[in-house]
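Subject: sequence -> structure tokens, single chain

Hey, anyone have a minute? Need the predicted structure for the following. Not urgent.
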Amino acid sequence: MILPETGRGTAEGGGGGLRQSLRPEVAVARKLRRAMSLPEVLLWEHLRGGKTGAKFRRQHPLGPYIADFYCAAAKLAIEIDGEVHDRSGLIERDRLRDAFLTENGYQVLRVSAVDVMKAPQAVISMITARVVGVAHRASPLHRCAVPLPASGEDS
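Reply:
Had a minute. Here:
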């Protein structure tokens, strides 16, 4: 039997198997992916498929929180802040969320929904610069053991 909401089968109809038990954050993230705001959809169209040179995930769980977008290579969480984030109760919640993410080694980039709508290319450029800057920094593990010849020297 195919369920109309999911397009998947049930255990009785064969092929659906047993329903997997999900972490609560994963279930919430899946719901949020289906109900993205217009600025999130617009930004996702620019981020998806590695168009910025890095892979992004949307509505990705990070501990007890769900980042609007996440780049694992740069450990960068991007949050799209709409007008609802200006309310007093949410300001404190956002501060606690940012503190948790920062303490756990993530960078947090907050972008206003208005900026995404008015100047999406500027937002993409800012994100790309952040991701490329982190991804191209040489780590101690990836440095050459043999020094390269100085500029103008023959090799």
